[in-house]
Amino acid sequence: MTIFDEIQASIAGLAETAGSSVTGIGQRWGVGSGIVLGEGRVLTNAHNVRGNQVTVTFADGRTAEGTVAGHDFDGDLAVIETDTGQAAALPWATTAPALGMPVFALANPGGRGLRVTFGTVSGIDRSFRGPRGLRITGSLEHTAPLLPGSSGGPVLDAAGQLLGINTNRLGEGFYLAIPADEALRGRVDALARGESVRPPQLGITIMPGHVARRMRRAVGLPDAEGLLIRDVAEDSPAARAGLAKGDLIVSVAGQPARSADDLASALRAAAGSIELTVLRGTDERTIQVVFGQPEGSA
Q1: pLDDT at 90
Q2: Three-state SS letters, 27-79
């Protein structure tokens, strides 16, 4: 048996054993794929879901309406509650992927039929921008070709174990997947319990560092690394704390604020409040921002 015969046999075997665990997500626009993770639970990318209701199509052509149990937009994950019928859950891999490892990508774009492709792991610990522009780190890069609508489908090893969830097409034949590690299992379990990830919001819009430096120079202020506040929403946590348009955020929770990713990471870890250091002109001040409704409000 040649290596090509072995690949063909593996593809045929995975299509038969794992194909029923791969679903289509959506039907008209924004279609994607999903993974059966247990009875009544389907995992997909958050960018495949619009609103709280979604149509799920199974390998046998059956469709079922699903409800989003929980979502994490910045992590690009969503768990859907639906009738999974006889579809079995995919087993999680017990070993981490390594460079050069053969992998198989499965998809059912919008329920239009199962696809299985072959590739290898071309990189680990990669990063990319999620649906809202924030960086997702620790991703698995591979070369198994994917059609549009394949995001949310699984990356499997030759034994049919789940290595990752396909999420992003890099172009030039490379693709990124969120690794199916213990951290992902914990996140998925929380989403299935309805614990959606909603980082607290300051209520500001910001400009990137290079724009902030150019604008400060234009008005004769010294260079400083940070995020320039372009606008503050009325009655937002930022407004109540006294932040103002033109303030330069130089640190957040004691760490430098060089990018929107720095700010987003600190907000995800915040519990009730967060401390910002800002420059207002040349005057440095520390501001404590408290989240939630002000005391006494409805």
Answers
A1: 95
A2: CCCCCEEEEEEECCEEEECHHHCCCCEEEEECCCCCEEEEEEEEEECCCCEEE
CA 100 to chain centre: 25
User: Torsion over CA of 252, 254, 259 and 260, rounded to 10 degrees?
Assistant: -30
- The stretches in the chain having pLDDT less than 50 are 295-298
Q: What angle do CA 268, 270, 273 make, to 5 degrees?
A: 140
DSSP 112: S
pLDDT, residue 296, reads 42
Amino acid in position 146 = L
Residue 78 CA to residue 196 CA, distance in Å, equals: 9
Q: Are 45 and 26 in contact (CB under 8 A)?
A: no
DSSP code for 111: G
Find where tokens 């030759």 sit: 158
